[in-house]
Structures are given as structure tokens and as C-alpha cells.
Write a structure and sequence with these properties.
The chain starts with a helix and ends with a helix. It is an all-alpha fold. The protein has ten helices and no strands. It is globular.
Length: 185
């Protein structure tokens, strides 16, 4: 893929995600635009993980579109190709399952993901932990935040070995969070 094709793919994915998430907001007190989250994943992958694969970056931008918007995997595949759609499929929770079962399945399925999906999932957990520390969801008590941190570590345990740099970023924010929760208790 040429540099021009790579840029086109990434920008098309960003525009598509922005359109599909246009009415959604994050759970923080400021109700940040949802698109900030997929954009942050792409930034983490590039700046902290050294990831340059345009299809992985496109999958990061699109990772929540099927799960959280009226977008199908067939649409992702038609617009962005089978590899991007495959990663998005790996990153999409089955909303027909109870939340506790979806969370359990993330832990179970983490080790079997492709390298690209593991990178995106790792960036997703880094982003979510940072948001919980810096821009926490409104109405989340300390024990819910701590429980999310503990569960995220279980997910990331199955992703280990894919990116030492991203794993170090995760370990840093995870340790900061556990320290903050211990001090608050």
C-alpha cells in the first residue's frame, strides 16, 4: 500500500467513525464527543506504540462502530477491506450477551486475537484507564473504577507479548490508578 493509499484509508476511517459516532458522548462529566476515544486510540498506537500499519490504525478508528452504531461488518468490509473488518469483528462485543458475560469473554478471547486486534485492544484499555483517572465517568464510585482497573489487567494479561511499549504504558496507568484508589480508601 502506498503512502497516499495509507493516508486515504486512515482519513476515510476517521471520517466514517466521526459520522457514525456524531451523536454519541463519552461518560465523563463534560460529556466529551465520543469520537475523541477512537482518535485517542490511533494516537496511542502511533505515538506510544510505534504502530504504522494503516489497517490497524483504521481498525482502531472503527473499533466501536459495529458495537455502538448502526453499522454492519459487511459495510466495514466493503469500505475498508477484509483485514480491517476482521479486526473490527474481533473487537466487537456481542450485545446479545449480558454485560458480565461480555466482560468475561473479553478475558477469554484476548489471547486468541490477531496481532492487529491485540494492539487495538491494548490501546483501548490504556485509553479507558486514563479516562477513568483523568476524566472519570459521572456517578462511578471508587470501587467501580477499581474493579474496572482489575478487570482490564485480566484482559491485558492475554494480550501480553504484542507490544512492550504499549504494555509499559498500560502498566504505568494501571499502577497509578491502583495507587490512587488505595489512597482514596
Amino acid at each position: 500500500m502506498s503512502d497516499q493509499q495509507s493516508l486515504r484509508l486512515i482519513l476515510a476511517a476517521a471520517a466514517f467513525a466521526a459520522d457514525r459516532h456524531r451523536t454519541q458522548l463519552r461518560k465523563d462529566v463534560e460529556k466529551s464527543p465520543y469520537i475523541n476515544h477512537p482518535l485517542e486510540l490511533a494516537r496511542i498506537l502511533v505515538e506510544e506504540g510505534g504502530v504504522a500499519d494503516p489497517e490497524v490504525l483504521a481498525a482502531a478508528l472503527l473499533h466501536d462502530t459495529v458495537e455502538d452504531t448502526a453499522t454492519s461488518l459487511a459495510e466495514i468490509e466493503n469500505r475498508f477491506g477484509p483485514r480491517v473488518a476482521g479486526m473490527v469483528a474481533e473487537l466487537t462485543d456481542d450485545k446479545a450477551l449480558e454485560k458480565s458475560e461480555r466482560k468475561r469473554m473479553q478475558v477469554v478471547n484476548a489471547p486468541g486475537k490477531t496481532q492487529g486486534a491485540k494492539l487495538v485492544k491494548l490501546a483501548d484499555k490504556i485509553s479507558n484507564l486514563r479516562d477513568i483517572l483523568d476524566k472519570p465517568p459521572a456517578h462511578w464510585p471508587a470501587d467501580r473504577k477499581r474493579d474496572y482497573f482489575l478487570w482490564a489487567a485480566d484482559v491485558v494479561a492475554g494480550l501480553r507479548g504484542v507490544s512492550p511499549a504499549l504494555e509499559a504504558s498500560f502498566d504505568d496507568v494501571h499502577a497509578r490508578g491502583l495507587q490512587a484508589f488505595a489512597q482514596a480508601a
